[in-house]
Amino acid sequence: MSDVVNVSSAPIVDEEELRHARAQKIEKIAKWVLPALMLALAIFAWDRIVVVNEIPHYILPRPGLVIETLIQDWSILSSALWVTVKITLMALGVAVVGGVGLAILFTQSRYFEMSFYPFAVILQVTPVVAIAPLIFIYVDNRLAGLLLCAWIVAFFPILSNTTLGLNSTDHNLRDLYKIYGATRWQRLRYLQLPSALPYFLGGLRIAGGLALIGAVVSEYVAGTGGIGSGLAFRILEAGYRLNIPRMFAALLLIAATGVVIFTAASLLSHALLHKWHESAIKRET
Amino acid sequence: MTTPSIPPMGQRDKLLQMSNVDKVFNGNVVALSDLNLTVNQGDFISLLGPSGCGKSTALRLISGLMRQTSGQITWEGGTNSGDIGVVFQEPTLMPWATVEQNVWLPHRLRGKSLFEVRDQILWALKMVGLEKFQKSYPRELSGGMKMRVSIARALVTEPRLILMDEPFAALDEITRHKLNNDLLMLRDKLKCTVIFVTHSVFESVFLSDRIVVMAARPGRVSSEVTVDAPYPRTEEFRTSAGYADLCRKASDALHGAMNEHGERASA
Question: Given phi > 0 = left and psi -120 to 50 = alpha, else beta, which region is B111?
C-alpha cells in the first residue's frame, strides 16, 4: 500500500476538491447577487407591464412614481412611519417583558402554568381584528389601545418559545445543580435562562413581524385620523382619495420596516449565539 | 505537598456506610433490596452488573438526588454539598460557558466569584491536562477532552467522594484506555475515593481495588471481588496474565450474579 502514497510536499488538491471550492465561491456570490437581481427584474417587469398595457396610475402606478410620491409626501409619510414604528417597538418591548416574565412564572410553578396557560392560548387564537373593536370601546387612550392589540398578537410566540426553552435544560445538568445545592434562583439564572436563549431569540424573530402586523391591523380597526396617525391610516385615507401611488409608498415603508426588524433580530441572535449554539455555527464541511 | 499514600485495604478509615438500603419505585418496583456497602477512604470501588441491577440508583442515593425507601446511609463526620463530585456518562457541560466557567460551577453555586477560586480551577484543569483550554468552548473540544473537563469540575471542590456513572462508555477504546490510565494517576496523586459504575469487566478490573458485583430484579449486591494487583497499574498490567485471571474471576462473578434468580425477592 505504501508505494501509492504521494510524498510530494506541495498541497495536494484533487479534481473534486477544486470543483467543491469553485462551487462554494459561486454560491457565496450568488447568495447576494441572485435575490438582488430577481428583485430588480421584478420591478422592471412591473414597470414594463404598466407601460405596455397603458394602465392608468390610479390603478397601478409605475415603480418610479411610487418612489417620487414617497419623496414628495415624505413629511406626511415619515410622521406616520414614526407612529407605526413606535407602536411596533413598544408592543414588542412589552411582549418581550410580558412573554419572558410569564414564561419564568410558568416554569417556577406548574400550578400557575395550569391555571393561566389557557388564557394565553385563548388570546392567541382569537383574531385581533375581532377583539380590537371591543378594546377601543373599553380603552379610551388610542395609543394604549393600539399597543394592547399589537401586544396580544406579539407576545405568544415569545411566551411559548421561552417556556419551551426554560423546560429543555439537560436533565443531568439539573441533577448536578441539585447535588451542589443550587437555589431556585441560581438554577434559573445560570442554567435555565441560558438554555432558553436560542428559543427566546427564535420567538423574538417571529414576534417582531407580528408586532408590526398587530400595529397595522389594529390601526385599521381604530381608524380615527388626524394627528398621530400611523401608516395604516394613511393607506386607508389614500384609498378613499384614490391616491394609489401614496398607498404603494406607505406599503413600501411597512414592508421595509418589517425587513429591518427581522434583520435586527437575526443579527442580535447571531451576536449572542455564534460562540456556542449549533444554529449559528458554520460547519467546515 | 505530598499526602501519605493510600493505606492497604483493611487499614482504611470508613467514609460511608450503606446499611439495609431499599429503594422501591411506585410502590412495587424494587430497584434496590437490602443493599449493604461500606466505603472506605481511598477505595476505588466499581459497581459492576447487568442493566437494571440498580447501580445508578445506588449512586443517586449516595449523591442525595433520591431518598432511600428504608435503611441508612451514614457519612463519617456528616456531609455537605462540596463532598461529592459527579461525572456522568455524558460530559454534561454547559455549551454557553467556557471550560473555565464550567469548572467554576460547583464553587459558583456556593457563592464564590471566579476570581476567588481561579487557582483551584487552574489546579483542577492541570490535573486533567487542559490548563491551556480555559477559554475554549465545549464545542471546540473532542469527546475525550470534554470528559476531562467534566472530571476537572468534579475535582475542583476536592470532594471526599467521586461518583462516576459509566463516564467512558460513550468513548472510543483508545480514548477510554487513555482516560483510564489518567484516572488512576489522578487517584494516586489525590488519594481520592471513587465509586465507579460500569458494565465492563475489563474496565472494572483495571481500575478498581474492589469490584462490587450486583444482580438484578431486585437490585442487590451479589458478591465482591477484591483486585489485589498493586498500583500503579500501567499498560503492561492490561496485557498481563494476572489481569486476565482477575478478569476471568470478575466475569465468573458477574455470570453468577446474572444466573441468580432473585431468591431473596421471593423470600
Answer: left
Q: What is the ipTM of this complex?
A: 0.90
Contact between A167 and A104 (Cβ < 8 Å): no
* CA separation for the pair B168, B178 (Å, rounded): 10
Dihedral of alpha carbons B175, B180, B185, B187, sign: positive
What's the pTM value of the predicted model, to 2 decimals?
Answer: 0.86
Predicted confidence band of residue B258 (pLDDT cuts 50, 70, 90): confident
Q: Which helix (H) or strand (E) holds B14?
A: strand B14-25
Find the chain B residues whose C-beta atoms sit closer than 8 A to any C-beta of A: 63-65, 81-82, 84, 86, 88, 90, 92, 94-97, 105-106, 108-110, 137-139
A274 vs B contacts (CB less than 8 Å): none
CATH of domain B36-266: 3.40.50.300
How close is the nearest chain B Cα to the Cα of A225, in Å?
49
- Look at A181 and B81 and tell me if their CB atoms are within 8 Å: yes
Looking at the complex, report in whole angstroms how far the Cα of residue B197 sits from the nearest Cα belonging to chain A.
Answer: 16
Q: What is the pLDDT of residues A182-235, one digit of tens each?
A: 999 999 999 999 999 999 999 999 999 999 999 998 888 887 655 568 899 889
Which triple of cell numbers denotes residue A132?
380590537
Q: CA-to-CA distance for B247 and B253, rounded, in angstroms? A: 10
How would you classify residue B54: left for phi > 0, otherwise alpha for psi between -120 and 50, otherwise beta? left
Q: What is the nearest CA distance from B261 to chain A, expressed in angstroms?
A: 32
Chain B residues with CB inside 8 Å of A277's CB? 95-96
